[in-house]
Design goal:
Blueprint (H helix, E strand, L loop, with lengths): L2 H23 L3 E4 L15 E5 L2 E10 L5 E3 L1 H14 L2 E8 L4 E6 L4 E2 L5 E3 L1 H6 L1 E2 H9 L13
Parallel strand pairs: 3-5
Antiparallel strand pairs: 1-2, 2-3, 4-8, 5-6, 6-9, 7-8
């Protein structure tokens, strides 16, 4: 892998860790898979798994400096959906717009399959996607957002 490619992966890992810490601060049990994109044992597993009182959330984490279409390989999509199903949970694309500190979540079930067989999340979907704080409040059963920490990490 090129030096530039390693730098991109390192920054991606930083965003995954930030996302995991944010969920942990909100009271979730969190596991971050440090080699989720690697061909470890030919398994594909999520970037982050978060559990709150038996509610399981599975995340594919992406961070970009501008809104853009996000593509997920078909095999990865199918394996992450299967992982979420086995865990009795819900799979999400977690998208961070770098520089804003804001995370947006799109359920994997809302991603669209392209003619080439990959799944995509369009810019329009990202613009109207739920904010992380809203998903946390829903999962925790909070009225309003009184119990949700809104400060980005």
């Amino acid at each position: 892998m090129s030096k530039g490619g390693l730098e991109v992966r390192r920054k991606g890992f930083e965003h995954e860790r930030e996302f995991a810490r944010r969920l942990f601060k909100e009271g979730f049990a969190v596991i971050r898979a440090p080699a989720s994109g690697a061909k470890v044992f030919r398994l594909i597993y999520p970037d982050v798994v978060a559990i709150y009182k038996n509610k399981v959330l599975v995340f594919e984490v992406k961070a970009y400096s501008s809104l853009r279409v996000v593509y997920i390989d078909a095999r990865r999509y199918e394996r992450l959906m299967a992982f979420a199903e086995r865990a009795g949970g819900e799979a999400f694309l977690a998208f961070k717009l770098i520089g804003t500190g804001e995370w947006r979540l799109v359920p994997f079930t809302k991603l669209e399959k392209t003619k080439s067989g990959v799944y995509c999340c369009g810019i329009g979907q990202l613009e109207i996607a739920e904010k992380l704080e809203d998903v946390i409040a829903r999962v925790k059963g909070c009225q309003g957002h009184a119990h949700v920490n809104r400060t980005p990490t």
